[in-house]
Structures are given as structure tokens and as C-alpha cells.
């Protein structure tokens, strides 16, 4: 058996003319990989929903809920017809006259912001919760109405000139926040899920068994992310500017630069999260763990300033805070890149730290 | 046995001849995962143009071996020489010349067959156009279907197509038909037969002995990370010195069958009883069967089932290890 001649016929491979691969751009591996990224994304209806429709629904919903209404009419209660008559002088108060027990109940359950009762002698008692802004406002309006009904004349005449300037409304605050959240979400989710899924399917292992240059694989994520960025940001921004008249006062070029660097930083973070994980469940948990705190503290829906001063340095060091602060400065105040240098620095730091670690940890299988 | 993994070379002329014809040479390969020894000092040689089969039960170390040869797994020690090149020095060039089909790869579901082939094709310097590769694996009708909608056999053929896009000199197929229905398996075998005719060198792993017998010029049987036999399927079968297997069930066990008289019969090599069936290794079928019938008659045991078949690689494995290939 050890003799070669014992081996059955060996047919050497004929020297077939090897066809060179078409040198067109479309056949470049990077182009093909990027195209595949797009196809996988565009053929996933859920992904399209989360990236395009969801932020707009959110913006529309929140914009509607927090729209600047004509000054609110406040509901208050009282127990006597005299007081009710005085209070009704103020058009901003919706006064209900109720029996004492019902009035108590209405105040306790928050159906009215304030309860006005006659006190001993010729006094009035206001019962309200002074930690509730509505209660405090109701207190001022009710007091004014009672005093004026009793004959008070204001010593100084004042007049109002109303202005509603775009840029100071909630929706103006919200759109850059959502934009930042979207940049983070699509970079981390888009990158993380796709990588973990390819690893789980052993597709990544199959790819490295080909002559594919490995950096191209990661580069294709970057390329598709940047191209998608134009569409995503354009979509949300266009929607905000066109429908809600959100101002875009800064240079669009600066805005684009901000979005790119934010995407790169978040992409590096996503790559780091996905560098070793083998199951979608684990990846999902890890991504939420990273993103959830930022959704809360980074000022997407309300100002990050509301958190205690002690936490502010930490909050400002988060990539989402930096992104949103920079986007707001650009869009609402028209700040140029120099004015958001500190935020850019934060983003660059995340990129420079996460990317090499992610590459170091990255496993193809 | 007389079957050794690594031929000993006595003179340089033979060695030279072998260097010219060996497409893959593996020396003293070892790989341990945690406390499991997957490959335990394996030597292997695959000659240019042959279809070589690594046969063994699950867990024998076949996949680890093939993945080390494919440059996907680092061996703990040992050498791999592939197409005269080595992974540490010539990885880029090697990748261009190999066609690889891995076990359990799930290609992207949302992408079509044609798009998948074009993607894989873009990584190789040379190779036939995508449409040609698709017709090679008979997926023309599915060219524009998404991978997610293909049947198991079609997916496996697509995986094969992905291995062929670079017009490879050496094809690695890791369990190419596992999990397929008989018809899909036959179809895949036909394809592999075609590649053999094109003169490609093929190394395939399988735990189906009929697959190895059908496709492979030479077969190495692996068990516990070691090669326990090497040769053409015919040589291996001949090596156990048994030509036929007789299997029977003796039913209505009023009294237990005595095996000793069977062992003494002329032309019978060995007798084993397992779960109510008795298996006899037989050299002369025409003597053994009548003798068996007479003996059963004498013992008064009724025969419920009788089968004979020519010895297969499965029987070789059973003879060598005392276990069935699919036991694990």
C-alpha cells in the first residue's frame, strides 16, 4: 500500500485557461460587500421601519403632545357662589362650584389644580400643591381674580406683545435629540446585529475562507453606514424643517461633518459590542445596556441639565450627549464647528478608544 | 492490516515524484480544544487530481482536520503543505486557489442566488462568470430567488457554487450531503463526480460510508483524532478479509439461540449478536448460508429475517473499532 503505483488513476488538472475576473467597478469586492449590506438592510421591512418611520412617528407624536398651545385654561374648584363669580372674571380659569366633599375629592385626585374656600372673616384659603406648576399658576391667577373682584386697581398699566419664535419650542429641542438618537441607534444596531448574525450563521467564517481582504468587510459596514446616513438624516431633518419648521441655522456642511463623526464613534462602539458576541440575544442585551442609559441622561427628550451637577461631567462625556449638544448648537444657535470643539473631542475620543479595542477583540467565528 | 497513513520513502526519486503529485500533505498534526484531543498526530497525503475521503463518526476529528488544512484553525503542532505552499507564508495565494465548503454555513437569506455568487466571485482574481457557476450547480431557475427560499439541497448546491467561483484547484467539502434527502444527495454526488472529471483535487469528509465508496478514490478512516485505515474503498474492504455479511433475526425466542455452533461453521469469520439481530462475517456465502439454515433448523429456531450484503466501509469501521459509524 505504501507504493505510489498502487494508487488508482490520477488525472492531473488540465491547464484550463483561467478567466480573469471582470475588472469593472461593480465587481470590486468592496462594492459587492457594500451592495450586500444594502440589500440585506433594504429587504428587511422591520429595519426600515425603525430607521425611517419610527423617529418620525416619535417626532410627530411628541411634537403633538408638547405643542405650544394657547396658554392653558386651568381647572379649579370652589365651594361658594360668591367666590365662583369672582374667580370666573379670569378667562384663564375654568371654575367649578362643587359641594365641599366633592371639591375635596376633585383636588385630591388632581381633577382641579386648586380649591378656593372662604376662610374666617373676609379671607380666602387657597388649597393646592405648590410642587405642581399648574397649582402655582392657578394660585396666581385665582389671587389676581379675587383681588380684582374685590376692587384692586393695578398701579402700573402693562400690555402684552406675544411672540412665538421657532427655535425655542419643544419640537425644536426634540428634533436634534431624535437625530442624535437615530445616529446612535442605526450605527450600533445596524452594525451590531449584522455582525453578530453573520457570525452566528458562520457566514463570517465562510467569508474569511475566501481571499476577501478582511478590512473590506468592516469597511463595507462603514461605507453603507455613511451612505445610509445621508438618507436617514436627510429624511428626519427634512421632515422637521418642512413640517415643523424647525430651524437649521448652522452650516449644513458642519452638520454633515457632525453626523459623520458621530456615526463613526457610534459605529466603533457598535463594533466593540459585537466583537465577540455569538448570539442575537446576548448582542441585544448588551446593546440595550449601552444605549438605554444614554437615551435617558443624554438629553434626547429633556435637557440633560436636569440631572444633578455632580453627574454632569459624566453625562457630558457620553457620546450621545456630545452628539446631541453639538447638533442643537448647530441647528438652533447656528454654531460652527469651533464652538462645538469639546463635543467633537469627546466623540473623537470614543472613536479612538473603541475602534482599536474592537479590532483587537474581534473574532471572525 | 498493512495499511499505513504515511508511506515511507526509501529513495529521493520516489520522494520527488510524490512531491510533484501531492496536492496536500499533512504531517503529525495535533489539535486540542480545552481537554478534548480533536486531532492526535495525523499524517495525510492527498494526491493531485484525486478525490480523497475522510470517513469517520461525528467527533472523530474530521472537521478539525479539514479546517486546519483550510487555514481556518491553527494546529497546536504539525505541518500542512497545500499545493506546495504553506499557510504562514502564502495564505493570500492559497486562498485564491482553494474552493471551500464549510459545514453549517448559512448564507444571507435576503440576498439572491445570483447576488451571492457575484459577491463571492468578486473576491477571486479568476473564475467563470456567475451565470456559468450557477448553471454548473443547476440553479438557473433559482438564480433570482432569495437564498432564504431555497430547499436544503438547493442551499447545499449554492454552497458548492460558492466554493467553485474561483475556479479552484483544490476543493474542500465538509460533509456536503449531511441532512439532505436521498434524491438531493444523489444530485450532489453527480455534481461532485463532474468536478472529479474536471481534474480538481477534492478532499471531502463524510460519515456516510456509501458516499465515500461512491465518490472517493481513496479513503482514510478516522477515529478519535487518528487515522486507523487508509486505502481505496476496495482495498479497505478486502483488508478485513471478509467478503460478505449475513444478518438475520431469529424470532419467537422460545429458547435462546446458541451462537457457538454458528462460529464453528465453515466460511464464517465472526459472529456478533446485537439487539436481536445476529451479524456474521462470512468469506464464502454459498457455504455459510445453507449451513446457517441447517443449524437453525437443528436448534428449532424460526428465521424471521435474512439479509446478505457485500462488505462495506461500514463493516470495515465496525471491524476496526467494534462500533458503528453512526453510533455516536
Give your account of this protein's structure:
The complex is a heterodimer of chains A (365) and B (328). Chain A is mostly helical and 365 residues long. Chain A folds into two domains: 74-149, Periplasmic binding protein-like II (D-Maltodextrin-Binding Protein, domain 2); 166-361, no CATH class. Chain A is built from 13 helices and four strands. In chain A, strands 2-1-3-4 form a four-stranded mixed beta sheet, sandwiched between helices. In chain A, helix 2 (45-65) packs antiparallel against helix 6 and helix 8 packs across helix 9 (252-273). Chain A is elongated and about 100 Å long. Chain A starts with 28 loop residues before the first helix and ends with a helix. Chain B has 328 residues and is of the alpha/beta class. Chain B has two domains: 12-238, P-loop containing nucleotide triphosphate hydrolases (Rossmann fold, 3-Layer(aba) Sandwich), CATH 3.40.50; 241-310, YebC, transcriptional regulation domain (Alpha-Beta Plaits, 2-Layer Sandwich). Helices cover 36% and strands 27% of the residues of chain B. Chain B is built from twelve helices and 13 strands. Chain B has helices spanning 12-21, 62-69, 87-97, 113-121, 130-136, 152-164, 182-197, 209-215, 233-239, 260-264, 285-299, 313-321, and strands at residues 22-33, 36-47, 51-55, 77-82, 98-101, 170-174, 201-206, 218-223, 226-231, 244-250, 268-274, 277-282, 303-310. In chain B, the strands form three sheets. In chain B, strands 5-6-7-3-8-9 form a six-stranded mixed beta sheet, sandwiched between helices. In chain B, strands 11-12-10-13 form a four-stranded antiparallel beta sheet. Chain B has a three-stranded antiparallel beta sheet with strand order 2-1-4. In chain B, helix 4 packs across helix 5 (130-136) and helix 6 runs parallel beside helix 7 (182-197). Chain B is elongated and about 70 Å long. The model of chain B is unreliable at 1-19 (pLDDT under 50). Chains A and B meet through helix 1 and helix 7 of A and helix 1, helix 3 and helix 4 of B.
Amino acid at each position: 500500500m505504501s507504493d505510489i503505483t498502487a494508487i488508482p488513476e490520477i488525472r492531473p488538472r488540465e491547464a484550463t485557461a483561467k478567466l480573469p475576473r471582470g475588472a469593472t467597478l461593480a465587481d470590486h469586492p468592496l462594492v459587492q460587500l457594500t451592495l450586500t449590506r444594502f440589500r440585506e438592510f433594504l429587504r428587511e421591512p422591520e429595519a426600515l421601519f425603525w430607521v425611517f418611520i419610527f423617529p418620525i412617528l416619535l417626532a410627530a407624536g411628541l411634537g403633538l403632545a408638547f405643542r405650544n398651545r394657547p396658554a392653558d385654561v386651568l381647572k379649579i374648584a370652589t365651594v361658594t357662589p360668591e367666590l365662583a363669580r369672582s374667580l370666573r372674571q379670569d378667562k384663564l380659569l375654568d371654575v367649578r362650584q362643587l359641594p365641599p366633599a366633592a371639591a375635596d375629592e376633585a383636588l385630591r385626585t388632581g381633577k382641579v389644580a386648586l380649591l378656593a374656600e372662604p376662610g374666617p372673616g373676609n379671607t380666602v384659603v387657597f388649597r393646592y400643591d405648590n410642587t405642581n406648576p399648574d397649582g402655582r399658576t392657578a394660585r396666581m391667577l385665582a389671587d389676581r381674580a379675587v383681588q380684582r373682584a374685590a376692587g384692586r386697581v393695578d398701579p402700573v398699566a402693562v400690555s402684552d406683545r406675544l411672540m412665538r419664535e421657532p427655535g425655542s419650542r419643544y419640537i425644536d429641542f426634540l428634533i436634534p435629540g431624535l437625530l442624535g438618537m437615530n445616529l446612535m441607534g442605526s450605527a450600533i444596531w445596524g452594525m451590531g446585529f449584522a455582525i453578530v448574525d453573520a457570525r452566528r450563521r458562520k457566514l463570517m467564517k465562510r467569508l474569511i475562507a475566501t481571499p476577501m481582504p478582511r478590512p473590506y468587510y468592516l469597511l463595507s459596514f462603514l461605507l453603507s453606514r455613511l451612505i445610509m446616513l445621508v438618507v436617514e438624516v436627510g429624511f428626519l431633518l427634512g421632515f422637521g424643517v418642512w413640517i415643523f419648521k424647525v430651524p437649521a441655522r448652522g452650516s449644513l456642511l458642519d452638520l454633515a461633518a457632525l453626523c459623520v463623526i458621530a456615526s463613526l464613534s457610534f459605529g466603533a462602539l457598535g463594533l466593540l459590542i459585537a466583537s465577540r458576541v455569538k448570539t442575537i440575544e446576548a448582542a441585544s442585551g448588551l446593546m440595550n445596556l449601552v444605549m438605554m442609559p444614554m437615551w435617558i441622561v443624554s438629553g434626547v427628550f429633556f435637557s440633560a441639565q436636569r440631572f444633578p451637577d455632580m453627574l454632569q461631567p459624566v453625562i457630558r462625556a457620553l457620546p450621545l450627549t456630545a452628539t446631541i449638544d453639538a447638533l442643537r448648537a448647530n441647528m438652533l444657535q447656528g454654531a460652527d464647528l469651533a464652538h462645538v470643539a469639546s463635543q467633537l473631542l469627546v466623540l473623537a475620543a470614543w472613536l479612538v478608544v473603541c475602534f482599536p479595542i474592537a479590532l483587537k477583540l474581534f473574532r471572525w467565528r | 492490516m498493512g495499511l499505513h497513513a504515511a508511506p515511507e520513502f526509501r529513495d529521493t526519486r520516489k520522494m520527488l515524484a510524490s512531491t510533484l503529485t501531492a496536492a496536500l500533505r499533512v504531517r503529525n498534526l495535533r489539535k486540542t480544544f480545552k481537554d478534548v484531543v480533536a486531532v492526535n498526530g495525523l499524517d495525510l497525503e492527498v494526491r493531485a487530481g484525486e478525490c480523497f475521503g475522510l470517513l469517520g463518526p461525528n467527533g472523530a476529528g474530521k472537521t478539525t482536520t479539514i479546517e486546519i488544512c483550510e487555514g481556518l484553525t491553527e494546529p497546536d503542532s504539525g505541518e500542512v503543505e497545500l499545493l506546495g505552499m504553506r499557510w504562514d507564508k502564502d495564505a493570500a495565494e492559497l486562498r485564491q486557489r482553494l474552493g471551500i465548503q464549510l459545514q453549517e454555513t448559512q448564507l444571507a437569506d435576503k440576498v439572491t442566488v445570483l447576488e451571492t455568487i457575484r459577491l463571492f466571485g468578486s473576491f477571486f482574481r479568476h473564475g467563470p462568470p456567475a451565470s456559468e457557476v450557477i448553471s454548473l450547480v443547476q440553479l438557473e431557475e433559482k438564480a433570482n430567488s432569495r437564498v432564504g427560499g431555497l430547499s436544503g439541497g438547493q442551499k447545499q448546491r449554492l454552497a458548492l457554487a460558492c466554493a467553485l467561483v474561483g475556479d479552484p484547484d483544490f476543493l474542500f467539502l465538509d460533509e456536503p450531503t449531511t441532512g439532505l434527502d436521498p434524491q438531493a444527495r444523489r444530485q450532489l454526488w453527480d455534481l461532485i463526480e463532474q468536478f472529479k472529471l474536471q481534474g480538481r483535487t477534492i478532499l471531502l469528509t463524510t460519515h456516510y460510508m456509501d458516499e465515500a465508496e461512491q465518490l472517493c478514490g481513496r479513503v482514510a478512516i478516522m477515529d478519535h483524532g487518528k487515522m486507523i485505515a487508509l486505502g481505496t474503498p476496495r482495498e479497505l474492504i478486502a483488508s478485513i478479509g471478509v467478503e460478505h455479511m449475513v444478518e438475520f433475526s431469529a424470532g419467537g425466542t422460545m429458547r435462546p439461540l446458541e451462537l457457538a455452533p454458528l462460529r464453528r461453521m465453515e466460511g464464517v469469520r465472526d459472529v456478533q449478536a446485537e439487539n436481536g439481530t445476529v451479524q456474521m462475517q462470512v468469506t464464502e456465502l454459498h457455504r455459510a448460508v445453507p449451513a446457517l439454515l441447517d443449524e437453525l433448523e437443528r436448534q428449532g429456531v424460526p428465521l424471521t429475517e435474512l439479509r446478505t450484503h457485500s462488505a462495506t466501509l461500514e463493516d470495515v469501521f465496525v471491524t476496526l473499532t467494534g462500533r458503528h459509524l453512526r453510533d455516536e
